[in-house]
Amino acid sequence: MVLMDKKQIGQWGENRAAEFLQEKGYEIIARNQRTPYGELDLVVRSADEIIFVEVKTRTSRRYGYPEEAVTPRKREHLLNAIACFLQEHPEWEQPWRVDVIAIEGNPDESCPRITWFENAIRA
């Protein structure tokens, strides 16, 4: 078993989420975008909209499901970060939504459990 710290586990989960979305035909246009309100994990594009993806990774359910970590405070930070990103990138002015991808597993597993919550956070 590979021992990884929390940041490495999060990065591993984000990589799995990015691969998952690319396999489904989405284009990754930004990763780990920092704003004064926090970080946007993934920004992807489909044919007609921009999707801001919050990725939550857990190696076990000891502390609950990964998606439970998207608290009301986290939602508020995400929406503020998105507003900041869109203001800085007027070229991406088109319909958008916020999804959450929950990753359960660890790098030792060849097939982590991926749950995709589309349109999970409403502005």
Question: What features would you describe in this structure?
Answer:
There is one protein chain. This protein is α+β, with helices and mostly antiparallel strands and 123 residues long. The protein has a single domain, classed as Trna Endonuclease, Chain: A, domain 1. The protein contains 2 helices and 5 strands. It has a 5-stranded mixed sheet, with helices on both faces. The longest helix is centred in the first third of the chain and has 18 residues. 24% of the residues are buried. The model has no long low-confidence stretch (mean pLDDT 91).
Number of domains: 1
Second CATH tier, the architecture? 3-Layer(aba) Sandwich
Helix content class: 25-40%
Q: Outline the low-pLDDT stretches.
A: none
Strand runs, count = 5
Strand order of the largest sheet: 1-2-3-4-5
CATH fold field value: Trna Endonuclease, Chain: A, domain 1
Count of alpha and pi helical runs: 2
**Which CATH class?**
Alpha Beta
Oligomer: single chain
N-to-C order of helices and strands: HEEEHEE
DSSP strand (E) fraction?
A: 35-45%
- Outline the biggest β-sheet: 5 strands, mixed
Q: Between the first and last Cα atoms, what is the distance in angstroms? A: 41 Å
Q: What's the gyration radius in Å? A: 14 Å
Class per helix and strand makeup: alpha+beta
Shape: globular
Average predicted local confidence, pLDDT: 91
Give the topology, please.
Elements: H1 6-23, E1 27-35, E2 38-45, E3 50-58, H2 72-88, E4 96-104, E5 113-121
Parallel strand pairs: 3-4
Antiparallel strand pairs: 1-2, 2-3, 4-5
Concise overview:
This protein is of the alpha+beta class.
